[in-house]
Amino acid sequence: RCARARSESASPRFIAFSLQQPTPEYDHPAPARQVRGQPLRTTWPHFTSAAADLHCGVWACEPGMWRIQFSVDKDEFFCVIEGHIRLHHQDGEQHDVRAGEAGVIPAGFVGMFEVVSAVRKYFVVVERPQA
Fold first, then answer.
1. Bridge partners of 34?
2. Please, are residues 87 and 94 in contact by the beta-carbon 8 Å criterion?
């Protein structure tokens, strides 16, 4: 189960991923978004803030490719632990991210997400409420 920040008056505790055993969540890209393959995606949600606007954990995926369109209120920082990801911007620009490298998918990003070789990454997603 995912750890949550407490809204109590006591100081929140440090959350060590290595000490948690979150229940994995499984899914596939939606059929309408699939470009190549139907890769299994596994998410281990390690933390969600009390306001539910910050989520982080570990994500793994088999090779494949699908279209993505980030909402205007969502940013994602990630760091690849193993494997190889390629991000394709809608204008054709591509970026490869391999083990030990990190990047940010900014709010409003439109393009394709390609898992070149099976990947595992840490992720931090920030979602801001729309005004």
1. 66
2. yes
Residue 96, CB-side half-sphere exposure with 13 Å CA sphere: 7
Predicted TM-score of the model (pTM)? 0.90
pLDDT digits (tens, 9 = 90+) for 1-59: 566 655 556 888 899 999 999 999 999 999 999 999 999 999 999 999 999 999 999 99
The answer to whether 74 touches 129, Cβ cutoff 8 Å, is no
Phi first, then psi: what are they for 32, rounded to 5°? Answer: -70, -20
Q: Where are the beta strands (DSSP E) in 62-131?
A: 64-69, 74-89, 94-98, 102-105, 110-127
Backbone angles phi, psi at 78, to 5 degrees: -145, 155
Residue with tokens 């083990």: 99
In degrees and rounded to multiples of 5, residue 49 shows phi and psi of: -65, 160
- How far apart CA 44 and CA 42 sit, in angstroms, is 7
